[in-house]
Amino acid sequence: MPAVPCPSCTSEGLPSEWDGSLIARYSHSGPRYTSYPTAPDFSAAFGPAQYLDALTRSNGQARPLSLYVHVPFCRKICFYCGCNKIATKDTRLAAPYLARLDAEMRLVTQHLDTARPVEQLHWGGGTPTFLTLRQMSELIDQLHARFGLSDTPGRDYAIEIDPREADVLTLRHLQTLGFNRLSLGVQDLDPQVQRSVNRIQPRALTEILVDEASRLGFTSLNMDLIVGLPHQTRDSFAATLSQIIELAPARLSIFNYAHLPERFKPQRRIDAADLPDGQEKIAILTTTMQMLSDAGYVHIGLDHFARPDDSLAIAQREGTLHRNFQGYTTHGDCDLIGLGVSAISQVDDCYAQNPAGLADYEAAIDSGRLATQRGIRLTFGDQVRRHVIHRLMCDLALDLDSVSDAFGIDAPDYFAASLARLEQPERDGLVTRQGNRLVVSHLGRLLVRHLAMAFDARLPDSDAHFSRIL
Predict the structure, then answer these.
(1) Domain 39-339 falls in which CATH fold?
(2) pLDDT bucket at 142, cuts 50 / 70 / 90
(3) CB proximity list for 86: less than 8 A, separation 6 or greater
(4) Which CATH architecture has domain 19-32+379-458?
(5) How is the chain split into domains, by residue range?
(6) 81 among the known binding-site residues?
(7) Does pLDDT of 234 surpass 70?
(8) Does 83 appear as a known binding residue?
């Protein structure tokens, strides 16, 4: 096992320690900016009719398509989970849900030009591995019949995998269905941490799938880890990370655990006294950055890391990286069609979201109408700010002159108040301003959500909707 560095050690741009005042200044809640405007700004005044109008307008743009399918079921609840899920062992629930997904596809494609290529496909949950292999085949057949899936090498077809519910036969089947990228949920390999969150997952389960994915030639493999779980320490998480580095995934998503038991009932099973405090969490994060940097990973931003030869890192270097509801992506120029419970679509200049409740989704589809429950159409100002926020988060830099040219505005004047809000972060070393160009520092990559908030004209008075930045 590689040596675990001391948390006080430094790498380029990393502080030896963060004092309490700096943590207090930036350890607040804020959006993740997978969209702008963010979901709290979505309105019930935007419904099926407005979504259908957006679908029709999008045909004139003829952008390629990205499809997201939400499978809400999982067999066993993880106490940390804040996803939209239904914990059940009743696999009979899947069949009627798949039938309604197909009905939703028919409703969408009545208004959508399906000659447009499907460059990206993502199945999330819950866990899509709740489905049987036969049901996975049926769902792919439905998607192909309605939209026409791609077999080109440049496609990005990904699925989230629970290693406790998948084996080598699962991966072989997924490859035959056209998936070329996998995302494995790991969270932590420490047995005590696993017991405390009700997710017992020995390393061997993950390692077998990693080896098989490599043998089968999957284009990219991502692993999800979580920082801030009960009983985690800088040393225990460094031990987990050392094992993960040995497995050499192309990408790592290292999420910050948001303890919101008032919103997510399973989290009430977690004793807040067992969670690492702010200083320990910062030590975990700085150790993580140090270890991944030493192992050759590129910090894409926020909680995402990738090998230099992975498509995410390449896209960032080339200035073509984007963000959508799956996080960082290389296919941000697509119209995104979300299918299923709670799924969000990004079409033309609109966002449209389905209901989070299964009963509400079923009722809408059974009545023969789209399930859109809320959404928003972007104003010109929204579009400018979305561009700026996403470029800052994807490029880790922002060229205000290019923004001026793209939107026909004087960007430094347009964003004068935003730039003033960045003066303190600049003094703290999170960002530098070089004329009309902003550059995020290595430290600022962890806090880029805070930097993006300076450009957000819609921040609510309360941050109760959002997770903590650190």
Answers:
(1) pyruvate-formate lyase- activating enzyme (3.80.30)
(2) very high
(3) 72, 73, 74, 93, 126, 358
(4) Orthogonal Bundle (1.10)
(5) 19-32+379-458, 39-339
(6) yes
(7) yes
(8) no
